[in-house]
Amino acid sequence: MDWRTDRRGLLRAGAGVLAGLTTGLIGAPRLAWAAAGGTLRIRVDSDFQVLDPYGIIGGLDEIIPRCTQVSLVRMGDTRKGNEWAPSGAETIEWLDPARIAFTLRDGMTWTKGFGPVTAEDVKFSYERIAGSDSAWAYQFEKLDHVEVTGALSGIIHLSDPFKPFIVIAMPYYGGHIVSQKAVTAAGGSYTTESPAECGPFVMESWEQNQKVTLVANPDWTGPKPDFDRVEFYIVSDDQAALLAYEADAFDFTRLAVNATRSVQASPPAGATVIEAASTRYTWLTININAEPLRDPRVRQAIQYAYDSDAVLQGAYDGLTTRSAGVIQPATKFARERNLIDARDVDKARALLAEAGAEGLVLQLIAATDSTSQTVAQIIQASLGEAGITVEIQPTEDAAYWAAGDKTQGDGYKSIELVLMNFAGGIEPTENLVWFRPDQIGVYNWSFFDSAEFEDLYQKVQVEADDDRRAAMFNRMEDLMELSGGFVFICFEPLTAIHDSDIDPVILADGHPDPVMFRKL
Amino acid sequence: MLSYAIRRVLLAFLILFVVMLAMYGMVFLVPGDPASVALGPRATPELKALLTARMGLDQPVAVQIWNFFRNAAAGDLGFDVWSRRPVLEVILEVFPRTLVLGLVALGWAVGLGVALGCLAVVWRGRPVDRLLGVLSVGMIAVPSFVVALYSLVIFSVWLGWLPAIGAGERGDFWGQARAVVLPAFAVGIGWVGYTARLVRAAMLEVMGASHIRTARAFGLPERIVVTKYALRVAIIPAIAIIAVGLGGILSSAVFVETVFSRPGIGTLITGAVQKRNYPVVMGTVLFMTAFYLLVVTLADLLIARLDPRVRDVLRG
Asked: Contact B305/A5, CB-based, under 8 Å?
């Protein structure tokens, strides 16, 4: 064959190569744009990183083990009261205020030949996290040990009576059961490859940053989920995800708060919009330790200058109300109102003048999502009215979490203002735990350090009387506010959209539980 | 010619070396420990140590740099710290998707751009020429992600003709073809205008050449003069621009792949940066730089081979 490098030959060859590449080169692309039947398609905003309950970070990390592992109990939908029910456990009962007996459901087996799920696995799963460096060690703070009484039965011994143990420790995060043999064989922990699964689903494939596919576990002997396949599509942008939903690419996706009203006004055909209270609480961190904020009058000035109504209307479309702490409003333990409940710009100015802090300039770190940026801008404007100049630093996720992390150098000591939000739990101590002194440089970025708070935290865990607990919780939130380290903003509304022919289940952390989704 | 080719290849290697050095320096310039930043504050010390070891950051800096260069020279770009798969394997899995997107985008953009450029020359100075000028500049000015979003709304949401996300199922040719339409449209639209302006300018210069006057003197139709005699000469400068354009198109693919959740180099590198997956970031940048240099170098060599004027200059 004669290879000619003239212009005509070039164009001819180029056209041939283009056609060949277009038609033949790719055997691999495989991201679905619409599946149907027994497939549940859920959009999530980021990929998973660590599946080991010991090191789970959050988001999809946690949703996948809900499907591929078992936990002794499973929580119900947060909109229906967060009721728990036995799941991996056949029975579960309190023997006394500090002992819980459980019996595992018979017939659960580990994949990859690791045998049946046993009480030894439960003991291993819980005790490896209790007292460890795991972020979820707090779930097992009251765990003394797990006594194995049979292949499938055991008794959980607590160091003190602690009624919320079942809802804090058992249903998720550190509560997922892992195979002792498999994890030990894997070296004691794992990241993205689960060494053994035992839940209703098993992982079929993972396309990084694109899609995770789970399929029904053929060896699962428990109640069958309604769907035999779950596909998680990773789409980071809320707006693009909404468009993709409208184009029938998913069955369920979270909605951006600022898009909710318009979608509610004209929802796509066959779609249902969810608007509910969530456990995700948002607040403004004021770092007590930062040089310009050491004077309590300056911090109080910020609390007075903050314009709550403007934030709730401007950033949340009036879908939520102001919070008075980190305990979900409208629950029996929530504080009724903030100590500084009404905006008073004059008072803020006076406090700043008194502290000699006129012309104060502060840096505000906020995540890059649209809601955070809107809140930050309104805070900037409202503090500006009191004479405080706020410079917003939009910060991407990884750098954001590094800002207050003490393992990243001394920067955490001097951050000034940070707009933060956490997914909370249904037991108030799960939300308050992050503000203990030992969390400074971890999650407590305010440097809030109160001995009374810590004392109350310990006492409230063993207090059984709800009225006394409520009083303790209220006092703890008073202390937080009095420190000047916090402006409580709101509990973010839980907003999502889904096909009307499915009934989704969303847990208290705001993430779905695909196992419990039902076809209607 | 041979010495020119050798110089071009050596220059490409030099650029590659500088890019590798810059990429490696980036790891140390970004504040904070990469493993801790990647994992967030909930990560256990054991997990941070594991990730640090996987990235090779537990070794002295000099050793890290030496290992990086030595391994890269041998084609080993390291391992993805999360999936633990070889980075090269991860890249080669998604690269064809980006390449196809880029080639389809470039293909339709160049095809239409050349046609519009020719039309503008045929009707130069007339309303059609002016209209094409406005259209071309308009297409250049519109950002590709805006085109992506609007085309998604129109063709996926309203009309339901084309998929909103993904790249089609494995083995489903028509599914893959449908999935590439909107992203390629969004990526290529700017290049339609650019190519049209480029071809028009080159053609206008060629149209004054003596061989074109001769062709006209023979009474050949204007269509034949333009397509057969003028375009053949005018297209040569476009080759270099198109080669450079492929790099630009692959960059645009980063945004478009994100909007369409389409697997490819763009989504790979975006995800890797977000998770501080440095081996993947460095490997991907290195791979794409090498690919880009290869295309540009080949284009330069082709022009030198095809264009007698360049050939003469190189011969001295």
From this structure: yes
Q: Report the sign of the C-alpha dihedral through residues A324, A325, A331, A335, in that order.
A: negative
For chain B, the domain total comes to 2
| Residue A269: φ, ψ to 5° | -60, 135
Question: Residue A22 has what pLDDT?
Answer: 40
Residue A209, chain B, CB below 8 Å: the answer is yes
Contact A152, A104 (CB under 8 A): yes
Task: Return the residue in B98, B144, B261, B284 with the most chain A beta carbons within 10 A, the one to mutate for interface testing.
Answer: B261
Q: Is the pLDDT of residue A31 over 70?
A: no
* B167–A31 C-beta distance less than 8 A: yes
* Cα separation, B111 vs B102, whole angstroms: 14
Give the pTM. 0.79
**Domain that includes residue A259, residue range:** 7-50+195-277+494-519
* Count of structural domains, chain A: 3
Among the partner-chain residues A22, A236, A407, the one whose CB lies closest to the CB of B103 is: A22
A354 shares a domain with A483: yes
Question: Do A286 and A332 have their domain in common?
Answer: yes
What CATH code is carried by the domain that includes residue A298? 3.10.105.10
Taking contacts as CB-CB distances below 8 angstroms, the residues of chain B near A12 are none
- From chain B, the residues in CB contact with A26 under 8 A are 96-97, 100, 167, 176
- State the smallest CA–CA distance between residue A342 and chain B in angstroms: 34
The helix (H) or strand (E) run that includes residue A311 is helix A308-314
Q: Kindly state the DSSP code that residue A78 receives in the 8-state scheme.
A: G
**CB pair distance less than 8 Å for A57 and B42:** yes
Report CB contact under 8 Å: B44, A134. yes
Distance CA A390, CA A362 (A): 5
Band of residue A34 on the pLDDT scale cut at 50, 70, 90:
very low
Which SS3 state, helix, strand or coil, does residue B79 take?
A: strand
Residue B42 sits in which domain range?
Answer: 2-73
Cβ of A407 and B48 within 8 Å?
yes
Per-residue pLDDT tens for A377-429? Answer: 999 999 999 999 999 999 887 788 888 888 878 889 999 999 999 888 888 99
B83 domain-assigned: no
**Sign of the torsion formed by the C-alpha atoms of B190, B194, B199 and B204:** positive
Q: Tens of pLDDT along B6-21?
A: 887 888 888 888 888 8
Prediction ipTM score: 0.70
Among A151, A140, A155, which Cα is nearest to A101's? A155
* B109 and B250 housed in the same domain: yes
By the 8 A CB rule, do A236 and A396 touch? no
Q: Is A133 on the interface with B (CB under 8 A)?
A: yes
pLDDT digits (tens, 9 = 90+) for B151-177: 888 998 888 888 888 888 777 888 889
CB burial class (10 A; 0-12, 13-18, 19+) of residue A387? middle
Residue B133, min C-alpha distance to chain A (Å) = 26
Average model confidence (pLDDT) for chain A? 89
